[in-house]
Amino acid sequence: MTGAVGSRLSRVRDRASRGFTLVELLVSLSILGISMGLIGSGIFRAFGLERTWSDDVVATREVRHATSWFAGDAPNAQQTDLADGAAPVSSATLSWTGQGEVSHVAAYSLSLDATLIREFDGATITVARRVLSAHFSRQGSVLKLALEVQAAAGETEQKSVEVYGRTLQ
């Protein structure tokens, strides 16, 4: 009797040590592939949301940056090329005489590559990128800038600023 039990045990032990069947291996690989696909798609979605959020933040910063430069120059303006009551234009030049009778000129213009440029006393800087439109206008002593910048996924960021030119003639 011990011989029959021993042979059965050796058969069970041989079956257990043979490894996985092809069906078991395919099922485990399928489960692993599905779980990796779900995790991977979640990661890619998270990166896409982060990129969209980042583009929106950049667009907001660009608009604020441009309007703050203009709001800093406009109160000093004594002369401008903007005609009072005329339709908005895509460029503006402001000039004034500062301390020590030093003349200053700040010129804003929209370039062909969708950037808003500020030229101040010969030095040029970019104040906003991905600009869809920049509209400068004047109503009496009030100088206006309306700016629209491209954000993420076809969205736009818009801001306008009106500044009183204290010494504008």
Distinctive features:
169 residues, alpha+beta, five-stranded antiparallel β-sheet, three-stranded antiparallel β-sheet, 2 helices, 40% helix, rod-shaped
Structural overview:
40% of the residues lie in helices and 33% in strands. It contains 2 helices and 8 strands. The protein has one domain (45-164). The radius of gyration is 34 Å and the shape is rod-shaped. A hairpin with a 5-residue loop joins strand 2 and strand 3 (103-110). The chain has helices at 2-16, 22-73; strands spanning 79-80, 91-97, 103-110, 116-120, 123-128, 131-139, 142-150, 156-164. It has a 5-stranded antiparallel beta sheet. The protein is an alpha+beta fold and 169 residues long. The longest helix is centred in the N-terminal third of the chain and has 52 residues, at 22-73. The mean pLDDT is 83.
Sequence of strands across the biggest β-sheet? 1-2-3-4-5
For the secondary structure, the number of strands is 8
List the helices and strands in order: HHEEEEEEEE
**Beta-strand percentage range:** 25-35%
Number of structural units classed as domains: 1
Question: How many helices does DSSP assign?
Answer: 2
C-alpha Rg (nearest Å):
34 Å
* Contiguous uncertain segments of 5+ residues: none
Major sheet details: 5 strands, antiparallel
Helix fraction by DSSP (H/I, runs of at least 4):
25-40%
What overall form do the CA principal axes indicate? rod-shaped
End-to-end separation in angstroms reads: 119 Å
Q: By helix and strand content, what is the structural category?
A: alpha+beta
Mean pLDDT: 83
